[in-house]
């Protein structure tokens, strides 16, 4: 079947999509967007987290056909050209990255948290990231990154409000 | 494989009648796992996402809440948490934020896993499941009659789950779940309680404790008979309630826990949730 959807602001079309395939496969293998990672394929690890109509979802658990006419935003769509989103920037600065495999999912999920909750508590950060697994570091630097990005985004909002 | 995309509820019913093996998909959080692992490859997927009415809720003239089967957990928590506290508490324990953004009570009901988190609070709250077929119209099935076996509900092959109906909480409600961490775990076992001070009765629901989710009828009857609704809780009453809840279970030993552990944990959860609910009743007569 053919699937047409908006991905990172661009309308894209894929042909010969198998009816049982996931949004994750569609993004990675047909649309050339390998940012969302394929790991557990059962919604346990969060590495494939993307926005589906502005709501974070595990791309591995969405059937490709379900995104017909809808909009998807992947980790590739968070940056503005060469300018990283403050969440991406903070992950780099805080060293919240080791092998990097879980990073795209964590960045998207954390991005959503800070959009919804401008000044999240540690408990809110932990709950929000409970579905994103990192197997090579701890989570401390990830928490640092989310806190830093939240502060910077709040400062930007204040500056814009002035 | 077919991918069916009905645009209206009536078209969905027709599609299901035409292909009774078509698997309905809404959030996809269970269906896609089976597909990804090749556990189950259905002849057709019936995508219910385009049918907007499934993701809405309304309050009927008699105050009953009619909640669309496709409402994701996150919206149940946000929009109905004050009126359906037990169901909202259970929703908060489902998976992770990503799963709660997509997963639905309709999916929990369709899957009918004994470990589904929403069954216990639906049972305790006396929910009624609205199912429909193109040929025979609507059936209203009390949650207590809905589950008929391990991962089996009483829906006919041409029926789709449309909504659940439930009264707003008439008193305190609680949900309690045992797991190895606070997220992304299937319950070792779970328990839900709902107090109805006006009717002087209580509702219960057990999860992961029997081949199907079930109520602890003897425990409910016992409490209805002995509770002094205007006074403090008697410790002996609480202890007996816990025993009767444990007796209602017929759990198995499996990788997540032993049958003995599950019975013990159910008794503990029953006693604790009764205590919490009673405390709320004393404070303000409403759920926390």
Q: How large is the share of residues in beta strands of chain B? A: 15-25%
Helix content of chain A: 25-40%
**Average of pLDDT of chain B:** 96
Q: Would you tell me the structural class of the helices and strands of chain B? A: alpha+beta
> If strands are numbered along the chain, what order do they take across the biggest sheet of chain B?
4-5-10-6-7
Largest sheet features of chain A: 5 strands, mixed
Which sequence of SSEs, written as H and E, runs from N to C of chain A?
Answer: EEHEEEHHHH
Specify the overall morphology of chain A: globular
Describe this structure in words.
- Chain B: It comes from Rhodococcus sovatensis.
- Chain B: Keywords: FAD, Flavoprotein, Oxidoreductase.
- Chain B: This is FAD binding domain-containing protein.
- Chain B: Residues 1-171 form the FAD-binding PCMH-type domain.
- The complex is a heterodimer of chains A (162) and B (288).
- With 162 residues, chain A is α+β, with helices and mostly antiparallel strands.
- Helices cover 37% and strands 13% of the residues of chain A.
- Chain A is built from five helices and five strands.
- In chain A, a hairpin with a 2-residue loop joins strand 1 and strand 2.
- Chain A is globular and about 45 Å long.
- Chain A starts with a strand and ends with a helix.
- The mean pLDDT of chain A is 96.
- Chain B has two domains: 2-166, Uridine Diphospho-n-acetylenolpyruvylglucosamine Reductase, domain 3, CATH 3.30.465.10; 173-189 and 217-281, no CATH class.
- Chain B is 36% helix and 22% strand.
- Chain B has helices spanning 9-18, 31-36, 73-80, 85-92, 97-102, 105-111, 119-124, 143-146, 217-226, 235-248, 259-283; strands spanning 2-4, 23-25, 44-47, 57-59, 65-68, 128-133, 137-142, 147-149, 152-153, 160-166, 173-178, 189-196, 201-207.
- Chain B is globular, with a radius of gyration of 19 Å.
- The chains are: A alpha+beta (162), B alpha+beta (288).
- The A-B interface holds A 1, 18-20, 22, 41-44, 46, 49, 55-58, 60-63, 65-66, 68, 109, 127-128, 130-132 and B 1-3, 5, 25, 27-29, 31-33, 35-37, 41, 44-45, 47, 49, 74, 95-99, 101-102, 182-184.
